[in-house]
Design a protein that fits this description.
434 Repressor (Amino-terminal Domain); 268 residues; 2 domains; 12 helices; 5 strands; Beta-Lactamase; elongated
Amino acid sequence: MQKAPSDEQRKILGAFLVDRRARLDPAAAGFAVGRRRTPGLRREEVAQLAGVSVSWYTWLEQGREIRASPETLDRVAEALRLDYTERVHLFALSERRPPEAPPDDSLSNGLLLLLRALDPVPAYIRNTRLDILAWNSAIADLFTDYGVLEPHERNTLRLLFLHPPYRRLIVDWEVVARGMLATFRAAQAQAADKTPFRTLADELIASSTEFRLWWPDHDVRHFDEGVKRIDHPVHGTVDLTYVSMVPESRHDLSLVTYIPRPSERAPP
């Protein structure tokens, strides 16, 4: 059963809605400006934009004990032109599951600077579909030169199953490939838009016997931390610890680092 917002949450929600309503420009929303006693939109204008009754929206701002569906909250968020962080706040105050972040492959300057600063630690940034969006020179030297690949080829799962040079690098390839497939399967189930996932899966089903055989399985996995061994043509056998970190404001992205493990030698 859905938990009801507390009296304090409803009070904060009402104040939040009033504040955001006051920030809007009536003309930009398509309303005549005229003489207004207070800045921003009127309650009836927000209600009109959101497709709800004026009395219902008034009660929402007043902190009355009413429940708003996720669909209705979405319309209120659109009417108030809330950004993603504000939408999450609106849903949290209403005791609703936060909306999923919209797909966005753009990267902030801060993330790109961090990626470059990590060099010589191998690292890349990828999304939940396992598309590699940015990388540093250390990881290109370790795995493959992503820059010479077409954008659609820069995908960890695709590289594992369809790129022979990448596949030859990985010791215990089947274990790694099955684990990455389990990660992809879990991410697809959680994605709001499953079309990009299905497109990639269809390509791999058509092109890879192993993927076609393993895709109907039900293993799921969260990719966060583990070990991997590669057989590098220049550096030889390299043992790595990988760590995946998710930016606080971009849960659709992961910064993945590969840290060489010290060799374990027997004491003299």
